[in-house]
Amino acid sequence: MQKKHWTQKTAKLVFALLFAMILTVCIPTETLAADVTLTVSNCVITGQNVNVAVTGAVPQAPDGMYYLFELKPYEEGIGARQNYCATAPAAGTATFSVPLDFNTANSKLYSRFVVAVSENGVFVPVSNESYITNPEAVATKATGYPMRSKKGLTADWQYSADLSALGAGYASYELDVSRFFTGGGTNYTYNGKTYSFNSGVVSEYDIVCKKFANEGCNVIMVIKNSFNAATADLIPPMARVPGKNCYALNVAEQAGAEKVAALMSFLANRYSGSNGTIHTWIIGNEVNNNSPWHYAGDVGEQEFSAYYAKEFRLCYNAIKSQNAGARVFINIDQRWMHTDSNALAYPGRNVLDHFAQEINAAGNIDWGLSIHPHPVPLFNCRFWTLPPGYSGMKNLVVHSDDTRMVNPTNLDVVTNHMAQPFLLSPSGAVRHILISEMGFTSANPSLPTDQNIQAAAMQYAYKLAASNPFIEGIVIHRQIDHASEVANDGMAVGIRDAGGAPKVSFNMFKYMDTADPTYANFALPYIGVSSWADVGLN
């Protein structure tokens, strides 16, 4: 019995060894990934070159060398590539230098860089990936940033003469990138290719930008992208379905990414001087609301945020490489931590944080934040009180980082959040923060309001926002009533009515940043207090 038992045990052992040998022969082994132990500490343009510096614990490098790879925005990783662009001896610190090749077919302005080691002929990443963090180094323009007043308007070019008369510091407008590719006539050669943009659309923006700039305003341009079958390559492939309000920009494919970069470069170059200057660029509208306001496909908030970070980075580099003085902003709506049945509308705070983490991991840049702290609900002109059905909702509008919504009364939530270390600018300061849209209706079928209440609400909201030292601009939405907003949302938010007649809020806007006694205390009886000190304001 003992002999038989030993034989069976031995047979099982031999069989197991043979089976393992067969697996080893038949199944190709994968190269074990080296540890990612290096950090790109610097990735900057210096003169005509890109200099990349890495530090950290030396990973296993069989041949004693580091290899630097360039990745385009639409490339996911090194893969099986062998075409590294620079080498350096493996050490705790290493530096690489490669030509930038600015505005040529080999331009690296939009690229990110990663360090690898060679293992059995396969290149394995051992560092994070980093983009260039100072695209402004190659800019030939550096326009100033006019600051006449914190107040501004979602502007209408037909009433541009209002802007200087009202003392507006900001004029906000929208630009649909798809329109520029619906025709030709205005040629622009960029990175070795010539693009032809719709001359009629270019002329339209020449007029608009010049009008606003001539009125002394800091011009804000909100970049949007509409669905058009003829320009579908501007939309990410996973999002090419009609029916959304706006779409993300395509940085997932080479042709789309190159077209977006060329257009943004063209716009930043053209509107930095004689054709008027766009000082402030907002990439997308209420991007945390993936569907329907910045559709990038049916993805979760983290995947969406990572994609948006790539999209933003490409636009940022295109703009800053033309005008070093321009500022570029992300935009979120009032849903701070609010969720509802729309699974593709994410809490703004989450998207903001994910976006910042993606940017930090790949090279911090000087992005800014713009927000839309409208009343809750939108048509509640008396925003300082919540209407029936809303007042009992837990954490709806509170002075806490877990507030569901942000309106003019709890703006401190946003600015306090932005003071966290991981959200600070490269200089260590709180980032530029704008209110790029905040509207108050003068008429609504659900909640009683009128022109006087609208004017009072606008003044009170402006005082609340202007008292926050971190909010640099406050754009009142809008200069004239918009038919679709009135019809669909019950939002007559203009300081002019649809026919162009000024409302009570017209003069309130003009004087609300002054001490004019006719307007200074106008809002107090509507709020229900006797002085601004009663609500903590001067």
Concise synopsis of the structure shown:
The chain is of the alpha/beta class. 27% of the residues lie in helices and 21% in strands. An eight-stranded parallel beta barrel has the order 9-10-13-15-16-17-18-19, surrounded by four helices.
Overview features:
19 strands; 538 residues; 13 helices; eight-stranded parallel beta barrel; alpha/beta; globular; five-stranded antiparallel sheet; disordered N terminus
How many beta strands in the DSSP annotation?
Answer: 19
Class computed from helices, strands and strand pairing: alpha/beta
| pLDDT < 50 stretches | 1-33
Anisotropy-based shape: globular
Q: What is the terminal separation in angstroms?
A: 100 Å
DSSP strand content? 15-25%
Strand order of the largest sheet: 9-10-13-15-16-17-18-19
What is the radius of gyration? 28 Å
Give me the number of helical elements.
13
Largest sheet: 8 strands, parallel, barrel
Your description of this structure?
The protein is α/β, with parallel strands linked by helices and 538 residues long. Helix content is 27%, strand content 21%. The protein is built from 13 helices and 19 strands. It starts with a helix and ends in an 11-residue tail after the last helix.
